[in-house]
């Protein structure tokens, strides 16, 4: 565990020079913005998510304002995020339910967050961690890939990864782990031909599954 702690500290320093993921940015400063940004980010590049979120939040940054946006206008605001038509309908339904059942506030439990259509564990855990400061490990494709590549764990699906990481990652690091590994995964430890020569934790990495690297 001491080595894992050292790796996380080292990566945290390395990724400081990179642009952090949009959902971790200071502008995304509320559970609500994190929730909506996560929905927009699915199957969408971070730069596109950032642009769409900024346009949307400039007009509506709370459920009461969001439900007042006509559906066609909402589509225009979030375009060209992936599946923007489906996401438009999802955002409308989510905001109506937030108002009707939660007085317009985003719930702070995983169970309640997962009860919303289209909200999975990744989104729920990001909202809990970044939005409410409640320790949770958000596992996306980067976290899953890098944790296995480093040799920390051997898992096949994100849920297994989350459960395994909870056993070996210090709880104080749970919230920041996603931001660190996503930044690292986008810039250094990319899916194909990672930049191992630029990696500050190269000597600690078991390079599991790596066929070619740079």
Describe the structure.
With 214 residues, this protein is mainly alpha-helical. The chain has two domains: 88 residues, Helix-hairpin-Helix base-excision DNA repair enzymes (C-terminal) (Endonuclease Iii, domain 2); 111 residues, Endonuclease III, domain 1, CATH 1.10.340.30. Helices cover 57% and strands 0% of the residues. The protein is built from eleven helices and no strands. Helix 5 crosses helix 6 and helix 9 packs across helix 11. The longest helix has 19 residues. The protein is globular, with a radius of gyration of 18 Å. The mean pLDDT is 96.
Question: Quick summary of this structure?
Answer:
The chain is mainly alpha-helical and 214 residues long. Helices cover 57% and strands 0% of the residues. The chain is globular, with a radius of gyration of 18 Å.
Give the tags.
214 residues, mainly alpha, Endonuclease Iii, domain 2, Endonuclease III, domain 1, 2 domains, 57% helix, globular
Strand and helix map with partners:
Blueprint: H1 2-14, H2 31-41, H3 46-59, H4 63-66, H5 71-78, H6 84-102, H7 110-114, H8 121-132, H9 141-150, H10 158-168, H11 174-187
Helix pairs in contact: 1-11, 2-3, 2-8, 5-6, 9-10, 9-11
